Amino acid sequence: MLKNKGFIFTNKAHSQKGIMSAVLGMISLFSVFLTIYYTAKAGGRAPLKYGFSVLLAMGYSIAGFVLGIRGRLEKDKFYLFAYMGIALNALMVIGIVLLLIAGVYGL
Questions:
Q1: Mapping DSSP to helix (H, G, I), strand (E, B) and coil, where does residue 80 land?
Q2: What is the 3 state secondary structure string of 8-26?
Q3: pLDDT digits (tens, 9 = 90+) for 16-63
Q4: Which phi and psi angles does 5 have, rounded to 5°?
Q5: pTM to 2 decimals?
Q6: At 78, is the secondary structure helix, strand, or coil?
Q7: What angle do CA 79, 85, 90 make, to 5 degrees?
Q8: How far apart are CA 47 and CA 49, in angstroms?
Q9: Which of 87, 83, 84, 89 has the alpha carbon at shortest distance from 63?
Q10: For residues 16 and 68, what is the distance between their CA atoms, to the nearest angstrom?
């Protein structure tokens, strides 16, 4: 006899906003990582363009967080990328704020 293999046939798809949220989070993570790497490589001296790239990454993270929430609110979708985007972008916003605070107070 045929045994149930656990296949589920559905018409659900991944949320496009959730996917874009995860992509923006990865771009933000990559740009902040490169900024920290090149600043450490230069002995702690960061040009103005590095600061601008971190602020741009913060904008990406905020936009990605909003897109992740909007992607999660869609009906009949898979939410994996929306949850990943929300978590990654929230961590990036918190990390960038802590990085800026550490830079201001010289920690």
A1: helix
A2: CCCCCEECHHHHHHHHHHH
A3: 999 999 999 999 999 999 999 999 999 888 889 998 999 999 999 999
A4: -90, 0
A5: 0.84
A6: strand
A7: 130
A8: 5
A9: 89
A10: 10
